[in-house]
């Protein structure tokens, strides 16, 4: 009986050791750097680029550019932390890419959304009036941010 108990304990110990080794191997095989990565909120003091992608059909591209220049550009230039922006247009996809440079995420995100919505409405009203249409022809495809790499 004592020998059987010793064999069972030995098997349990061996299996436990094997399980422990497997767990250790799995832990060291995983990408530990991802576990230690800082969230983007920790980079509030570094330059950030706001990225916007819009559907801009070729037949309304001029109206889009005019409204960007007359509505968004002057308003953005008055915002604390605004460093500049670039507008791109992909002819094949009929998509616009807008990159807005901000001194920091904190300054960018300190702008009240209510204020941004007022400017967006002015932008849309200008486009609709220029094209004599009732809906905004520019659909937002993507919005996000790009962070400067070191």
Description:
The chain is an alpha+beta fold. The chain folds into two domains: about 1-35; about 40-145, Alpha-Beta Plaits (2-Layer Sandwich), CATH 3.30.70. Helix content is about 50%, strand content about 25%. It contains five helices and four strands. It has helices spanning about 1-30, 30-35, 60-75, 105-110, 115-130; strands spanning about 50-55, 80-90, 95-100, 140-145. A four-stranded antiparallel beta sheet has the order 2-3-1-4. A hairpin with a 4-residue loop joins strand 2 (about 80-90) and strand 3. Helix 3 packs antiparallel against helix 5. The protein starts with a helix and ends with a strand.
In short:
With 150 residues, the chain is of the alpha+beta class. 49% of the residues lie in helices and 23% in strands.
Descriptive labels:
49% helix; four-stranded antiparallel sheet; alpha+beta; single chain; 150 residues; 5 helices; Alpha-Beta Plaits; 2 domains
Strand order of the largest sheet: 2-3-1-4
Instruction: List the helices and strands in order.
Output: HHEHEEHHE
What proportion of the residues is helical, as a percent range? 40-55%
For the record, give the distance between the C-alpha atoms at the N and C termini, rounded to a whole number: 67 Å
CATH class of the largest domain: Alpha Beta
Uncertain stretches: 31-43
What is the CATH topology of the largest domain? Answer: Alpha-Beta Plaits
Net shape = elongated
Strand content: 15-25%
- Give the CATH architecture of the largest domain: 2-Layer Sandwich
**Overall strand count:** 4
| Cα-based radius of gyration, to the nearest Å | 28 Å
Task: Summarize model confidence as the mean pLDDT.
Answer: 84
Domain count: 2
């Amino acid at each position: 009986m004592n020998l059987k108990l010793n064999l069972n304990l030995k098997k349990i110990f061996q299996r436990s050791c094997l399980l422990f080794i497997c767990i250790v191997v799995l832990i060291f095989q995983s990408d530990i750097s991802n576990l230690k990565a800082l969230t983007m909120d920790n980079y509030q003091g570094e330059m950030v680029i706001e990225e916007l992608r819009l559907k801009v059909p070729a037949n309304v591209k001029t109206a889009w550019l005019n409204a960007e220049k007359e509505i968004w550009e002057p308003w953005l230039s008055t915002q604390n932390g605004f460093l500049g922006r670039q507008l791109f247009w992909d002819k094949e996809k009929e998509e616009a890419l807008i990159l807005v440079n901000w001194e920091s995420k904190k300054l960018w995100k300190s702008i009240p959304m209510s204020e941004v919505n007022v400017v967006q409405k002015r932008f849309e009203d200008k486009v609709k009036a220029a094209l004599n249409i009732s809906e905004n022809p520019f659909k937002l495809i993507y919005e996000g941010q790009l962070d400067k790499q070191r």
